Amino acid sequence: MQKMLRMPLLLALLSCLMMTPFFSQAEDTPSQTEAEQPVKVNVGTALPALQKRLDTLKQQVSAVKTDKKFTALNDDALKLAEDANKLAVVLAPQLTQIQAQLDVLGPAPAPGTVTETAQVVGQRKQLNNSKTLLTTQIEQVKAIAVNAQNLSSQIYGLRRDALKTQIALNTGSILGEKFWSPLISPNEKDTQRFDEFGSQVSDAWHQAWDEDWYFGSGFYLLLALVIGLFGRKALDRPMNWILPRWLPQGRFRRSFLACFTTLSTTVTLGISMQLICYIFTRLPDTSRLVMDFADQLVELTWFSAIIAGLGIALLSNSHPSWRLPGIADPLAKTLASFPILLAASIFIFGIIEQLNGLVGSSIDATLFGNGLSALLVALNCLIAPIRVNRMRRKMRAEGEQTEARSTMAGLIHLVISLTAFVILLALLIGYIPLARFVTFELLWIGLVVSCLYLLIHFVVDLCEAVFSPTTQSGKILQSTLSVNERHLSLASTLFSALGKTTLLLMALVALLNGTFGTTTPLELVSKIADIWGGKGLESMNIIPAHAVNAVLCLVVGWYILRSSRRWLDHEFLPKTTMDRGLRASLVTLFTNVGYVLLIMLTLSMLGIEWNRLAWIVSALSVGIGFGLQEIVKNFISGLILLTERPVKVGDLVSISGVEGDIRRINVRATEIQLSDKSTVIVPNSQLISQNVRNATMGNAQGVATIALTFPLDIDPEQVRNLLLEAYGLHESILEAPAPSVSFKELGPNGIVLSVTGYVNSPRMVSGTRSDLLYEILKMLRAAGISLSQTQTMVLEQPHRVTVEDEAKGQ
């Protein structure tokens, strides 16, 4: 019995011992829960603060242009992303705790099964609302963190792009360790980005050679290699056979061959690269990054191919006799590798720059690529002139004749050398953005100028070939339109001028609205803008980029206007039937209108609006009322003279006792050349307001009139016939109206006869009259007729009346 009583006691004691750890653990649980309580954060205040910081950063980024501010904003964006991630971490345990409480309560029972108390229902509803709110807040916080990261990436890209325009930023010399750091110790992020891109390219490559795609990939690759390596040579052979047989003899053959060589080189290389890229872009699983890289690679190939094609065409080592510029054969052979090396350099380092932009590489990697590309281009541009000068000295030493260098060729040579020197100097002192800017500006301007040179020669030679009377097309036009050779020559000059003008305008637009690597207008960022300050300039929106565009527009416009004026004055207008005065008036009027338009266009390029010039007009109005009144009056009078043409260049005029020929009508005054070759400057307003005698207006004829006095005993009929005979024998006297003799006067001194004859121009009167006097005098002496004797006045001493005389008279 006692044993039976002891067994429950032992079991109870054992149970107590076994439950002791659980009780101790249960006692410890509250303390641990208190230790793991989440940090309480006022989300209602922290979340709007983060959103406000993000909005502020976005506003600041849109107005920042300096590298220093970009760096500060990038740090702020990264700090914002870090703070948002910390807030998300803090909010996560709160969401876990609420979910745990909901799990304890369990899901809401189905209607009609179990009835819960109002307290449990309210608690579950409150927890669900808290869970929804907290989930939304966490999502907002994560969105802010993601937006901050994206903003940092955008700032990084903007900062990298800003390096292209921040030419005043010193980033370190190419001789420094920092410049070579991407090659010696590359950035981990850059390595990761390039590895990811390389893996995408590798995946596309392996996919291209899968069973479903390998046949097409092999075909496109083989076709691309054949076109790229042998395409241009295959096109040159039939063209060499066609040119001498189909095209007329003349300069058009060489310009056509140069254009064809450029076009064939560009097209074959461009199509070859497009076929290679199509191997990857046609695949369905090719990444967006690889496709973008392929598109940019094709564009870069076209640009590099144009440079190589232009160099090969202009040097024309395959056809030296058809070379367009005047370059000696040894010099052309010396420069044969230059365009190919330049195009290859641009292609290789252009790929590096495009990769940096696509993968979002670091600033150091971007500067490294920009610096190497600028360095290689500068070395090419500097070595080529040195090799040319060395070869030219060698040719002179050997007695060989070099080409006659023009001033323009020497200027181009000097500009390229100086530009290359500036690029190298900028790289050495640490201005890599400046070196990149100058490099690609040099490439773009050189490309545009080379294309302009080639196309202008092509257009001029084409017009001469089409309208030449010796070619088949010229003969067809001459017989069809019934025109003479002068009209064909005039049409050739006109159409070639229209073509050159169109090409010049296109070149100007290309220079102003694009540079290699950018599609926006020329953008220059300089610290000079900070100095400009002031409300007046700010209201006119004058910025350095616009100033450079305006200067470029002014220089190119002035050159176009000057060339057009020379073309009108010496080539086009002399082939027309206009008289010299009308031609001079048209040239002057064209020049004045051209200068006005050029000034207006330059002001427009500066960004100056006409309504901003009200204060200038107000200031000028006072000056016009005083000192500028005469200038404005003479200017308006000059425009009236050029439009109404009461007098024109070449007219013989007489004004205020001054008589001479008009040589030039300027904006303010007119130049009148006298008979002694001296020049009188007459204000234009006097030619409008005063009486002016125009002796040559309306094709006026000159009148040669001679009045002679004969004795009373002559035979008037004989003298009349003799005078008419003298006038009729002179070659300058016109037959119609016929010469005439009129009886002017009959007096005690003799008979006055006046003989009149007409000549073609008033300028012939003086010389013709002198010749006639010589001839008439000879004829009178031969006929024994003398002129009336000169009357002599005899002055006698008056008689002096004396007193004796008076007395005698009486």
Automatic annotation (TrEMBL):
<dbReference type="InterPro" id="IPR023408">
    <property type="entry name" value="MscS_beta-dom_sf"/>
</dbReference>
<feature type="domain" description="Mechanosensitive ion channel MscS">
    <location>
        <begin position="631"/>
        <end position="696"/>
    </location>
</feature>
<dbReference type="GO" id="GO:0005886">
    <property type="term" value="C:plasma membrane"/>
</dbReference>
<comment type="similarity">
    <text>Belongs to the MscS (TC 1.A.23) family.</text>
</comment>
<dbReference type="Pfam" id="PF21082">
    <property type="entry name" value="MS_channel_3rd"/>
</dbReference>
<feature type="transmembrane region" description="Helical">
    <location>
        <begin position="582"/>
        <end position="607"/>
    </location>
</feature>
<dbReference type="Pfam" id="PF12607">
    <property type="entry name" value="DUF3772"/>
</dbReference>
<keyword id="KW-1003">Cell membrane</keyword>
<feature type="transmembrane region" description="Helical">
    <location>
        <begin position="213"/>
        <end position="235"/>
    </location>
</feature>
<feature type="transmembrane region" description="Helical">
    <location>
        <begin position="444"/>
        <end position="467"/>
    </location>
</feature>
<dbReference type="InterPro" id="IPR006685">
    <property type="entry name" value="MscS_channel_2nd"/>
</dbReference>
<feature type="signal peptide">
    <location>
        <begin position="1"/>
        <end position="26"/>
    </location>
</feature>
<keyword id="KW-0732">Signal</keyword>
<feature type="transmembrane region" description="Helical">
    <location>
        <begin position="488"/>
        <end position="512"/>
    </location>
</feature>
<dbReference type="GO" id="GO:0008381">
    <property type="term" value="F:mechanosensitive monoatomic ion channel activity"/>
</dbReference>
<feature type="domain" description="DUF3772">
    <location>
        <begin position="139"/>
        <end position="200"/>
    </location>
</feature>
<dbReference type="InterPro" id="IPR010920">
    <property type="entry name" value="LSM_dom_sf"/>
</dbReference>
<keyword id="KW-1133">Transmembrane helix</keyword>
<dbReference type="Pfam" id="PF00924">
    <property type="entry name" value="MS_channel_2nd"/>
</dbReference>
<dbReference type="InterPro" id="IPR022249">
    <property type="entry name" value="DUF3772"/>
</dbReference>
<feature type="transmembrane region" description="Helical">
    <location>
        <begin position="409"/>
        <end position="432"/>
    </location>
</feature>
<dbReference type="InterPro" id="IPR011014">
    <property type="entry name" value="MscS_channel_TM-2"/>
</dbReference>
<feature type="domain" description="Mechanosensitive ion channel MscS C-terminal">
    <location>
        <begin position="708"/>
        <end position="786"/>
    </location>
</feature>
<dbReference type="InterPro" id="IPR011066">
    <property type="entry name" value="MscS_channel_C_sf"/>
</dbReference>
<feature type="transmembrane region" description="Helical">
    <location>
        <begin position="256"/>
        <end position="281"/>
    </location>
</feature>
<dbReference type="Pfam" id="PF21088">
    <property type="entry name" value="MS_channel_1st"/>
</dbReference>
<dbReference type="InterPro" id="IPR049278">
    <property type="entry name" value="MS_channel_C"/>
</dbReference>
<feature type="transmembrane region" description="Helical">
    <location>
        <begin position="301"/>
        <end position="319"/>
    </location>
</feature>
<feature type="transmembrane region" description="Helical">
    <location>
        <begin position="542"/>
        <end position="561"/>
    </location>
</feature>
<dbReference type="InterPro" id="IPR052702">
    <property type="entry name" value="MscS-like_channel"/>
</dbReference>
<keyword id="KW-0472">Membrane</keyword>
<keyword id="KW-0812">Transmembrane</keyword>
<dbReference type="InterPro" id="IPR049142">
    <property type="entry name" value="MS_channel_1st"/>
</dbReference>
<feature type="transmembrane region" description="Helical">
    <location>
        <begin position="367"/>
        <end position="388"/>
    </location>
</feature>
<feature type="transmembrane region" description="Helical">
    <location>
        <begin position="331"/>
        <end position="352"/>
    </location>
</feature>
<feature type="domain" description="Mechanosensitive ion channel transmembrane helices 2/3">
    <location>
        <begin position="588"/>
        <end position="629"/>
    </location>
</feature>
<protein>
    <submittedName>
        <fullName>DUF3772 domain-containing protein</fullName>
    </submittedName>
</protein>
